[in-house]
Amino acid sequence: MSGQALWFISRATGVVSIVLITLVVCLGMVTAGRRRPHGESATVVMGLHRWLSLGMLVFLGTHIVTAISDGYVSIGWLSVLVPFTSGYETLLVGLGTLGVDLLVVLLVTSYLRHRIPEHRWRLIHWLSYAMWLVALGHGFFMGTSDQPVLRVVSVACAVVGGLMVSWRVIASHSDGERRREIDAQEWT
Amino acid sequence: MPDSSEGVRIAVDRVLCTGHGVCAQTLPGAIVLDEWGYPVIRSEAVDPEAAALAVKLCPARALYRR
Description:
- The complex is a heterodimer.
- Chain A contains seven helices and no strands.
- Chain A has helices at residues 2-33, 41-69, 90-111, 118-125, 127-143, 148-171, 174-184.
- In chain A, helix 1 (2-33) packs antiparallel against helix 2 (41-69) and helix 5 (127-143) packs antiparallel against helix 6 (148-171).
- Chain A is elongated and about 75 Å long.
- By secondary structure, chain B is of the alpha+beta class.
- Chain B has one domain: Alpha-Beta Plaits, CATH 3.30.70.
- Helices cover 23% and strands 24% of the residues of chain B.
- Chain B contains two helices and five strands, in the order E-H-E-E-E-H-E.
- Chain B has helices at 22-26, 48-57; strands spanning 8-12, 31-33, 39-41, 45-46, 63-65.
- In chain B, a hairpin with a 5-residue loop joins strand 2 and strand 3 (39-41).
- The model of chain B has no long low-confidence stretch (mean pLDDT 86).
- Chains A and B meet through helix 2 of A and helix 1 of B.
């Protein structure tokens, strides 16, 4: 009974985690893509991005600890950080582990951002897209594979994130457009 | 400078700044935005707590205390 409860908690917190990760990645893209601020939104987006990324750790931590301590399937504590060492679903648990490794890199470099050159921090921070993708794969193919309702959550996260990526690619050149406008105008 | 004793002084690194406008929102009055969305510092001495938050939240790491 308690084992079953742990398993359900693990799956539930996993679903919440992927939703929060998607949200944090989207907020990051809004910040990275925006050039012309409107009202208070830039501050709210930035604050949410920072604090949700930490708040999400509570759910992700619970997801990992309950999945391992449950004992119904064999996932060792080593699999928290070393990918593809799990006896159960080696590949798919490994994807989750890879996501955790990337997340650790992202968290540590952002925490020490003041000590890292800006361009290097930015380069490392692009790993968040990879982290989001492996987490999504882990959730879609494993955690929610036999649950249509939960699978909808995975798909929704993928769709929302995908739309945001397209927006990020299209909208991030507003400065360039403005520069071309200025360049084209008559100089007196 | 008569008002420097009341608060900390802030400045913007013009090279790093990408014009998100977060500093103008966290330090209203002290920082306003030009028509391009880049900050113009109106008063250098600001409340230390508000300044710390604004420095922390700057997405480009361009705002700093000096």
